[in-house]
Amino acid sequence: MLEPRDGIPPVVADEATLAEVIAAFADGTGPVAVDAERASGYRYGQRAYLVQLRREGAGTALIDPIACPDLSGLGAALSDTEWVLHAATQDLPCLREIGTVPTRLFDTELAGRLAGFPRVGLGAMVEGVLGYVLEKGHSAVDWSTRPLPDPWLRYAALDVELLVDLRDALEKELDRQGKLEWAHQEFEAIVSAPPAAPRKDPWRRTSGMHKVRRRRQMAVVRELWNARDRIAQRRDVSPGKVLSDTAIVEAALAMPPNVHALAGLNGFGHRMGKRQLEQWQAAVDRARALPDSSLPQPGQPVTGPPPPRAWADKDPAAAARLSAARAAVSALAEQLNMPQENLIAPDTVRRVCWEPPVSPSAASVAEALAGYGARPWQIEQVTPVLVAALKATAG
Fold it and tell me: Is the CB of residue 307 less than 8 Å from the CB of residue 319?
């Protein structure tokens, strides 16, 4: 499919046209297909730069959320409507920022996982389920570009063109497999999940951080990461375009004493001006001057069980439980034709095996699973195999 059935609609970029679109979609029927395009790798943050919708009776709409930053009226008009998204958890945060949050949804990617499809990208799903090949290739472009080129808009419109058709076909397949109620529980869990809390110490996720062992070097990473983040936010560009993670780690390992030494490191080459070099060196100097008491600790506080590779030494009995549980869950997932991580979160299995109920029974294991956020269908499926695994490895 190279063209949307109704052609490429004009981009909605003013409040009057937006009001017309909201009225049209409010009068439409059936589920509404929703998608959003971000400018990851180009701009700071994960804001939406284009929102696409399609609904029976309303057609397709392409909305510019930069020109129309408050879409709460659209969200309100569709509040009782089922939204169809592909990989919903990727788009919901940026949709929430502009006032559009579903109360019901159908996630076609997650549905594909539960139904056992080996490839669950939108293009693969549309081709495998509906027999259409979508034109792809603009997913990684800079969606903050204005005006947006027609080929990009065509791609964006096609992303919602067949989403409701895909939803209907997947619903039938899930129902045939006896998994439709499971899917509904998963979709409800996505809708009811609170917004993710800001990550603690995000600088620790710098690529290559595993090479940085000493606390003062870690302080250099922290200072450079925070300086980069402030600049990126001010300039509204991706942090990686300001300074690469590789450069941050290079500086942390080298601990350059001055600008001249810094300029000789990878990532701080000849294209970087003196003023830029000085601001990075200032960050390094701040880390060098910190008292020992202010240096970061070499690792984040661990909540829950340690990494599984350490279990054999720390608690051999727990390691045996985990091995048996993993094997049982893997076999069940294969039997149910779905990925293990969709059957039950691996972290949940680890926690139950690290601190199992004193007397592993169906009731006590089910209670533990529920406490870790497992859905009722997961508890029903997984409890028997976990109980068997725990009992088989009991000392």
Answer: no
pLDDT tens digits along 304-355: 899 899 999 999 999 999 999 999 999 999 999 999 999 999 999 999 999 9
**230 and 270 share one domain:** yes
Handedness of CA 121, 342, 173, 335 (dihedral sign): positive
**Domain contains 6:** no
Last residue of a domain, which of 129, 159, 192? 192
3, part of any domain: no
Residue pLDDT, tens place only, 186-220: 999 999 999 888 889 999 999 999 999 999 999 99
Measured CA distances, 285 to 146, 280, 386 (Å): 40, 9, 53
Domain that includes residue 210, residue range: 202-294
Q: pTM of the prediction?
A: 0.92
Answer for the pair 190, 105: CB distance below 8 angstroms, yes or no.
yes
Secondary-structure percent of the chain, ordered helix, strand, coil, rounded to 5: 55, 10, 35
Note whether 216 and 288 are within 8 A (CB). yes
